[in-house]
Request: fold
Amino acid sequence: MDAAILSGLNAERAARRAAILVTDTIDGHTRLVKKAEAAHDPLAEELARRFRSGRSGMLEDGRTFLTVSVPPAWLVMIGAVHISQALAPMARMAGLDATIIDPRTAFATPERFPDVELIAEWPEEVLKTRPLDAYTALAALTHDPKIDDVPLTAALEAGSFYVGALGSRKTHAGRIERLSGAGVGADALKRIHAPIGLDIGAASPAEIAVAVLAELIAALRKAPAGESGAA
Reply:
């Protein structure tokens, strides 16, 4: 592979941006297509499908091979709560990276969350060094505006592929009023999945976790072409 192409690919990977190598297997020519530029490529439609699926493969012409590079989807759970205890292992089984953020040290303990990245700090402090991006799914689960609102706003600004928030419709109406008052646009606010998770009648924390995981996977894999998504 040409050194400049490899350097470009590595730069996209380091920045958690998706890219595809398009290789002519007959003459060996390879070019790099960054996701931000893919809409103007002659293979735009096929590239969009590959970005969504994350799957490499040969095109129907039998000579063009697409090598897809997308960042791993990252689930950020705001709140070291019972739902997070169930959701974290499910997310890992589904192949997602997972992080739990909660400044409440009484809840954010290694004993309660032994096998997941756990950060017992305020989200706004964490996000200064760990910014969200288009390959992030954010689940706000604390019911506490002081903890949830900042990461919700950050996820919307970053174009995260999934943004969900726990709470009733009444709770969400208050959330919308607060975020709108803080300057978040109406179109962005419509992207929040609330009440969080697919409507499957979930009652227990584990059932709610199933509903959340199913909803975010649908957002990950079924996003229309051109929309933000992790694949």
